[in-house]
C-alpha cells in the first residue's frame, strides 16, 4: 500500500559502496597535485635547525632525574597547541608541528635523547589556559611550551625555566581604521580576543571600558575584525603580525601594551627539571640555535635580526 | 499509505493545469534563488579557483579524512557506551523498585535538560581544578555519553511501552517473573522496534561530536579550525565540512530507513502500527536539535 | 560564590539572551516548519522536493557548523548580520526541519480510516484536514514539538561558541575570570528550569487538546 518504493538490497549496497568510495577517495585521490603550492608551508631550513641543535653529554643527562626519565621514555611529552601561528602550528598537509615553541620543545628533546627526527622528538598534548598547571602537576606532560607567561601566581603551582622570549599583547584593526592607535582608544569599542587567552584578562584590567567579545579561534577573531563585527582584536603581537602578513585587510597598530615573559612550564615537585632546562637555554642562547630558530619562525614575519635573548630568571616567578 | 495521501482526489484537467503552473513557478523561484547565491559568491570573489584548489591537494584531503576518522571514532565509542547504558537507564525507569525508578527518572530528566556544551565546559574548565582531568578524548566522550544515555533511555522506554500489553500478560500467565518477561519477551521486541530510532540517535551523536573542537579533540570540526588557521579560507572550509557531515549523516539515515522499512514488512503490526511507532520514537528523539 | 552574587547582572543578561534566542528560534522554526510541512504534502512536485531536501539537509547539519557559516561565512559573500540575528536564524533553520518532521509524522500517525471516513462523507480536502485530521494530529504533535522547543533552548548554548553573550558564554567567562566552578551549577540549574518549564507548558497543552475516548 505504500506509495514509496521499498529500497532494494542493491540500493543499500550502492549507498554503502558510496560511503566506502568516499572514504577511499578522501585518503587516496589527488595524488597528481604534488607541485601545488600550499599556503603557509614551512621553510625547509626549519628541520635543519632542529637537526643541528646541540646534544647534551650522557653524564649530565644521567645525573639529572628529570632528564634521565625523559631519555628513558625516548621523547618529550609536551603541553601546547597545534593552531597557534608562528609558535606552534600543525601543517594540515603533512601533520608536522612547527613554530618557535614547537621548535624549542623539539630542540630540548634532541638535547636529552640525542635523536634527530623533529616530529618524533615530541608528543603533544593540547593544553588550555586552565589545564596547563594541572597537566604538569599530575605529570601528564613533562614540559609546557605554550606562549606561557611567567607570573608569580602561577609559579606557586609550577616551576618556570626561562624566560626564553619576551612578547606582549598588541592591537589589530581593519586596514582603513585611523581612529584606534593604542590602548586608550579602545574605550567603548568592541574588542575581540580569544576565549582562553591571557589577553581576555589583560583587557579586563587595562581597558575596562572596552566591550570584550570572545571567540574561540584566532581565525575567527581576524574574520570578525575584517568583517567589521568588532573594532579591534587584542592578542600576542607575534600572532597578530603573522595574521596581518597574510591578510591585507587588517593591520597591527602601536607597540605591545603588556609585557609577557614566556617561560617553559615544568613540574614544581622536581627541582632538577628547572635547573636542567635553564642550563640548556643558556647553551642554545650562546651557540646561536635560539636565534636561528627565531629567524626561521617568528623572523619570517617580523623583520630584522633576532633580538637578544632575555636574561634567565629576570621575570618575577622564574 | 498515509492519511495525507487520501485527502484529495486525483486532480482533473484544470487541477492538473494548475499544478503544472505552480510547479513551473516553483522551479523558477528555486532556480532564481540558486542563481542569486552563485552570483553573490562570485561578486565577492569566493568562486575564484585559488580559493578552492587547495582542497584537492592530497595533504588537505588526508587531513580532512583524518578529521572524519576522529569524528567516527568519537561517535562509535560514544554509541558503544551510551546504547547499553541507555537500555539500562530505561529499565531502571520502568523498574518496580521505587528507589531505582526514581533515581533513573531523575537522571534522565536532568541530563535530557542540560546543554552538552555546558557539560563539556565543566569537564574542560571547572573539574580539572578539583582533580578530575580526563584525557582530551574523554572530555568529549564522557559528557556526550552522559547526555545521550538520557536521550536513548527515553527512546527505549517508548519502545517498551509500544510492545502490546498482551505480550507481558502472556509472559506472566505462563509463570515468568517480571524480570524474565522483560528480558525474554518484551525487551527483544522493544529493541527491534526502536532500531531505526537508535540509528537516528547515532546521527545526533555524530552531530554532537562537533563540540570536540572545544576540547581540541581532532574531529572534523577541529580539523576545519586548523585548516582555516592555516589557509584563511573560512567559508570554503566550512562549506566542505558541512557537506561531509551531511553526507555521512544521510548515509546513516538511509540505513535507518532501510531497517525501518524491513521492519514494516514484518509479519505482525502493519503499516499503521509502524507509523504510530515511528511517531512515538520520533517524539522521544527530537530533543536532539543540536 | 562571589562570582555569582557579584555578577548577577551578567548572569541575568545571559539568561535573558538565552530566552530571547530560544523564543525567536522556536517561533521561527514553527512558522518555517509549518510552511515546509505544507510543501511536503502539497500536490506541487517541486515544492515537495524542496521540502524533503530541506529536511534532509538541515536535520543532518551540525548546528555548530551552521552557526559558524552564518557568523563568519556570510560576511565573506557580503551579508553581515549581528551575532544574535545569526544565532537566532541558525536555530530557527535547524529547528524548522524537526518541526516539519514532527508535523508530517503526526499527520501520518492518524488512522488511515479517519481520512477515508472524512472523504466518504463528502468533506473536501480542507474540511477533512480542519475537522478530522488536524485536531487528532495536533495532539500527537505536541510532544515532539515541545521536545524541539527544549532542543532549541539547549542548542542556543552553542551560540556561545560564536561569541553570543548568552548563559553559557557568561558562565565560562566568569569561570575564566574568577575560577569559580559554582557558576556551572547555577547555569545548569537555570537550563533545567527552562527545560522543565517547557515540558510543563507542553503537558498542559497536551491535556488541553486531548481527545477523550
Explained architecture:
The complex is a heterotrimer of chains A (318), B (290) and C (213). Chain A is an alpha/beta fold. Chain A has two domains: 45-167 and 261-300, Periplasmic binding protein-like II (D-Maltodextrin-Binding Protein, domain 2); 169-253, 3-Layer(aba) Sandwich (D-Maltodextrin-Binding Protein, domain 2). Chain A has helices at 9-28, 45-51, 58-62, 65-73, 100-113, 118-121, 132-137, 152-155, 198-206, 218-226, 237-245, 271-287, 289-296; strands at residues 76-80, 83-84, 88-90, 97-98, 122-126, 143-144, 158-167, 169-174, 190-194, 211-215, 232-236, 250-253, 260-267. In chain A, the strands form four sheets. Chain A has a five-stranded mixed β-sheet with strand order 10-9-11-8-12, with helices on both faces. Chain A has a three-stranded parallel β-sheet with strand order 5-1-6. The longest helix of chain A has 20 residues, at 9-28. Chain A is globular, with a radius of gyration of 23 Å. Chain B is mainly α. Chain B is built from eleven helices and no strands. By secondary structure, chain C is mainly α. Chain C has one domain: MetI-like (MetI-like fold), CATH 1.10.3720. The longest helix of chain C has 34 residues, at 8-41. Classes of the chains: A alpha/beta (318), B mainly alpha (290), C mainly alpha (213). Chains B and C meet through helix 1, helix 4, helix 5, helix 8 and helix 10 of B and helix 3, helix 4, helix 5, helix 6 and helix 7 of C.
Give a short summary of the structure.
Chain A has 318 residues and is of the alpha/beta class. Chain A has helices spanning 9-28, 45-51, 58-62, 65-73, 100-113, 118-121, 132-137, 152-155, 198-206, 218-226, 237-245, 271-287, 289-296; strands spanning 76-80, 83-84, 88-90, 97-98, 122-126, 143-144, 158-167, 169-174, 190-194, 211-215, 232-236, 250-253, 260-267. Chain A has two domains: 45-167 and 261-300, 3-Layer(aba) Sandwich (D-Maltodextrin-Binding Protein, domain 2), CATH 3.40.190.10; 169-253, D-Maltodextrin-Binding Protein, domain 2 (3-Layer(aba) Sandwich).
Amino acid at each position: 500500500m505504500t506509495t514509496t518504493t521499498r529500497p532494494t538490497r542493491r540500493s543499500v549496497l550502492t549507498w554503502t559502496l558510496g560511503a566506502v568510495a568516499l572514504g577511499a577517495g578522501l585518503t587516496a585521490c589527488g595524488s597528481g597535485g604534488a607541485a601545488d603550492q600550499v599556503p603557509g608551508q614551512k621553510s625547509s631550513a626549519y628541520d635543519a635547525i632542529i637537526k643541528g641543535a646541540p646534544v647534551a653529554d650522557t653524564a649530565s643527562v644521567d645525573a639529572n632525574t628529570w632528564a634521565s626519565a625523559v631519555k628513558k621514555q625516548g621523547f618529550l611529552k609536551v603541553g601546547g597547541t597545534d593552531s597557534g601561528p608562528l609558535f606552534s602550528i600543525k601543517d594540515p598537509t603533512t601533520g608536522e608541528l612547527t613554530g618557535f615553541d614547537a621548535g624549542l620543545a623539539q630542540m630540548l628533546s634532541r638535547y636529552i635523547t640525542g635523536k634527530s627526527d623533529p616530529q618524533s622528538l615530541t608528543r603533544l598534548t593540547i593544553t588550555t589556559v586552565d589545564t596547563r598547571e594541572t597537566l604538569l602537576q599530575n605529570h601528564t606532560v613533562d614540559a609546557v611550551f605554550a606562549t606561557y607567561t611567567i607570573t608569580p601566581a602561577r609559579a606557586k603551582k609550577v616551576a618556570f625555566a626561562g624566560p626564553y622570549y619576551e612578547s606582549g599583547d598588541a592591537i589589530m584593526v581593519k586596514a582603513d581604521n585611523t581612529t584606534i592607535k593604542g590602548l586608550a582608544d579602545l574605550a567603548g569599542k568592541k574588542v575581540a580576543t580569544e576565549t582562553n587567552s591571557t589577553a581576555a584578562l589583560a583587557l579586563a584590567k587595562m581597558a575596562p571600558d572596552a566591550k570584550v567579545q570572545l571567540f574561540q579561534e584566532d581565525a575567527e577573531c581576524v574574520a570578525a575584525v575584517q568583517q567589521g563585527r568588532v573594532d579591534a582584536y587584542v592578542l600576542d603581537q607575534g600572532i597578530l603580525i603573522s595574521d596581518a602578513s597574510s591578510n591585507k585587510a587588517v593591520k597591527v597598530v602601536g607597540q605591545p601594551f603588556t609585557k609577557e615573559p614566556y617561560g617553559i612550564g615544568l613540574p614544581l615537585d622536581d627541582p632538577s627539571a628547572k635547573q636542567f632546562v635553564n642550563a640548556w637555554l643558556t647553551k642554545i642562547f650562546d651557540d646561536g640555535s635560539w636565534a636561528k630558530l627565531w629567524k626561521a619562525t617568528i623572523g619570517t614575519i617580523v623583520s630584522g635580526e633576532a633580538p637578544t635573548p632575555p636574561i634567565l630568571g629576570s621575570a618575577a616567578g622564574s | 499509505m498515509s492519511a495525507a495521501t487520501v485527502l484529495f482526489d486525483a486532480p482533473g484537467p484544470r487541477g492538473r493545469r494548475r499544478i503544472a503552473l505552480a510547479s513551473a513557478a516553483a522551479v523558477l523561484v528555486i532556480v532564481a534563488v540558486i542563481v542569486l547565491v552563485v552570483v553573490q559568491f562570485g561578486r565577492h570573489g569566493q568562486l575564484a579557483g585559488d580559493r578552492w584548489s587547495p582542497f584537492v591537494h592530497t595533504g588537505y584531503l588526508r587531513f580532512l579524512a583524518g578529521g572524519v576518522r576522529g569524528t567516527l571514532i568519537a561517535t562509535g565509542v560514544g554509541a558503544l557506551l551510551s546504547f547499553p547504558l541507555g537500555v539500562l537507564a530505561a529499565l531502571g525507569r520502568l523498574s518496580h523498585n521505587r528507589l531505582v525508578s526514581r533515581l533513573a527518572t531523575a537522571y534522565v530528566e536532568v541530563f535530557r535538560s542540560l546543554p552538552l556544551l555546558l557539560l563539556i565546559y565543566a569537564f574542560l574548565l571547572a573539574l580539572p581544578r578539583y582533580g578530575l582531568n580526563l584525557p582530551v578524548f574523554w572530555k568529549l566522550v564522557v559528557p556526550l555519553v552522559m547526555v545521550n544515555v538520557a536521550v536513548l533511555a527515553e527512546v527505549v522506554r517508548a519502545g517498551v511501552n509500544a510492545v502490546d500489553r498482551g505480550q507481558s500478560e502472556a509472559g506472566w500467565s505462563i509463570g515468568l517473573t517480571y524480570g524474565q518477561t522483560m528480558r525474554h519477551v518484551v525487551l527483544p521486541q522493544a529493541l527491534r522496534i526502536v532500531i531505526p530510532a537508535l540509528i537516528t540517535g547515532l546521527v545526533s551523536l555524530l552531530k554532537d561530536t562537533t563540540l570536540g573542537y572545544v576540547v581540541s579533540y581532532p574531529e572534523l570540526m577541529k580539523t576545519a579550525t586548523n585548516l582555516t588557521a592555516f589557509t584563511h579560507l573560512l567559508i570554503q572550509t566550512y562549506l566542505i565540512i558541512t557537506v561531509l557531515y551531511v553526507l555521512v549523516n544521510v548515509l546513516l539515515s538511509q540505513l535507518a530507513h532501510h531497517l525501518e522499512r524491513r521492519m514494516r514488512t514484518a509479519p505482525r503490526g502493519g503499516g499503521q502500527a509502524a507509523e504510530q511507532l515511528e511517531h512515538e520514537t520520533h517524539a522521544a528523539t527530537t530533543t536532539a536539535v543540536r | 560564590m562571589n562570582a555569582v552574587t557579584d555578577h548577577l547582572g551578567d548572569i541575568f543578561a545571559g539568561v535573558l539572551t538565552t530566552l530571547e534566542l530560544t523564543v525567536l528560534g522556536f517561533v521561527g522554526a514553527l512558522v518555517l516548519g509549518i510552511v515546509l510541512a505544507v510543501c511536503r504534502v502539497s500536490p506541487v512536485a517541486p515544492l515537495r522536493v524542496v521540502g524533503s531536501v530541506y529536511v534532509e539537509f538541515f536535520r543532518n547539519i551540525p548546528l555548530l557548523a551552521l552557526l559558524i557559516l552564518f557568523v563568519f561565512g556570510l560576511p565573506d559573500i557580503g551579508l553581515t548580520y549581528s551575532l544574535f540575528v545569526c544565532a537566532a536564524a541558525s536555530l530557527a533553520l535547524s529547528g524548522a526541519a524537526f518541526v516539519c518532521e514532527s508535523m508530517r509524522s503526526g499527520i501520518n500517525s492518524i488512522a488511515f480510516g479517519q481520512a477515508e471516513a472524512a472523504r466518504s462523507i463528502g468533506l473536501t480536502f480542507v474540511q477533512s484536514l480542519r475537522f478530522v485530521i488536524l485536531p487528532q494530529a495536533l495532539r500527537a504533535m505536541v510532544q515532539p514539538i515541545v521536545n524541539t522547543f527544549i532542543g532549541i533552548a539547549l542548542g542556543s548554548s552553542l551560540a556561545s561558541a560564536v561569541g553570543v553573550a548568552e548563559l553559557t558564554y557568561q558562565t565560562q567567562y566568569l569561570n575564566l575570570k574568577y575560577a569559580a566552578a559554582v557558576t556551572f551549577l547555577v547555569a545548569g540549574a537555570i537550563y533545567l528550569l527552562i527545560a522543565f518549564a517547557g515540558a510543563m507548558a507542553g503537558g498542559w497543552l497536551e491535556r488541553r487538546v486531548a481527545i477523550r475516548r
